Predict the 3D structure of the following.
Amino acid sequence: MKLSGYLMRSTIVAALGGFLFGFDTAVISGTTGWLRQIFELGDFSLGFTVTAALIGTIVGALAIGRPSDILGRRRALFILAALYFISAVGCAISWNWYSLLIFRFIGGLGVGGASVVSPMYTAEISPARLRGRLVAFVQFNIILGILLAYLSNYIIASFELGSVEWRWMFGIEAFPAAAFFALLYINPESPRWLVAQGRVDEASKVLNKCGTDTSTVEEEIKEIQISLDLEHHSLKEPFFCKMYFKPITLAVMMAAFNQLSGINALLYYSKDIFQMAGYGSKSALFQSVLVGFVMLVFTVFAMVIIDHFGRKKLMYIGSIGYIISLLGTAYAFVSNGSLVLICLMVFLAAHGFGQGAVIWVFISEVFPNRVRARGQALGSFTHWFMAAIISLTFPFFATHLGGYVFVIYAAFMVLQLIWVIFVMPETKGISLEKIQKEFGIE
C-alpha cells in the first residue's frame, strides 16, 4: 500500500507530541546535580522532584480520554502543546522549589496526555498495513526527543553557565512546543472520531486522503459504523465490564512490564548511574547521549520491520535482551564499572527494538473504537503510575543496593517473557475493527 504524502505529513506533526514527550521525560537527567545543590535536596526530595512530573503524567493520562472524545483528537493535541510550552517557560523562570514542582507537574500533564492522544490519533488515521510503522513513528520521536534532550544538556553544560545552567536545560523545550502548536493547524481530525460524531462527509474526505483498509471509502465508513454500533452501545457506556476484560488486561500488563524493566530509572537518572559507575560529570552527560543514540537506532530498525515481523516477535527478542543486559549491568557494577556503558547500550537496544517500539502500537490497537480513548488512557495511566513508583524508589535502592537493583528489574523481565509467550496476541496487519471481532467484542 502506498503511503500518501498527506498521511505522512499528518503523522509527522502528530508525532511531535511524542518528541516533546521524550524531551520532557529526559531533560531533567542533566539538572539533578544542580537541583540537589541549589534546593538542598536529599535522595527522597530529588526523587519527588522527578516524580512531580510523573504525577502530572498520571493525571494527564487519566484526564485526557474524555476531552479527546468530546473535543476531538486534534483539539486535544492543541491543549497538550500549550501545556508543554507553559511548563518549559515556567521551569526556566521558577523562583523556588515549589514553583519548579508545579511547572514540572504541568509538563507531566502534557506528557501523560500525549502518551494517550498521539498514538491513538495516528492509529485512527492509518490503514492497517501501515499502522504499525506509523504509530511506531510516535515512539521514534519519543526516542529522538530523549536523545536531543541529552544532547541539548551536554551542549548547554559545555558553555559552563554556572547556576543558571539548569534553567536553560528546561527552557529550551519552549521552541519545539511552539512549533508543535503551530503545525497542528495543517492536520485533519481523526476520521473515526468524525464518524462517531455523525460527521460522515468530513470523515470520508480524510479517509480519501489517508487511505483505507477496504476497497472504497464507503465500505470503510460502514466498517467503522458497525464497530461503533451506537444504536446498541453508547460512548458513555461502562468501560470496566466483562466485555472489555481482555483488552483491558492486555493493555495494563503491557504498560506495567514496560516500566518494570527499569527504563525510566535510566532515562531520569542516566547521569547519576554513570557517575555511580565512576564516570565524571561531563563524561556522564556524554554517555547519556551515546545510549540515547543507540536506542534511537534500534527503534528505527524496529519501526521498519514491525508490520512485517510482527509485534510478538519483537517482544520475544526485546525480553531476552532485557534479561541478559540487566544481569550484565548488575555484574558490571560489582566487577568492572567500565562495562556498565556497554551493558546499558544493550539494554536500550533491547528496549528500542522490543517494548519501546511495540507498547503504544499495541495499546492503540486492542480497544474497540467506541472505548479506545478510555482504553488508551488506562494503558498510559498504568505506564506512568509504574514509572512514578520506579523513579521515586530508584535513588533509595541505588544507594542501598548499588548495581543489584538491576537484578530486580531482570526478574520482572523474566515474567514479561512468560507473558509474551503464553498470553500476548499478534495484531499485525489486522484492521482495528477486525481486532475487535477477534476479541469477541460485539
The mean pLDDT is 87. The longest helix spans residues 128-158.
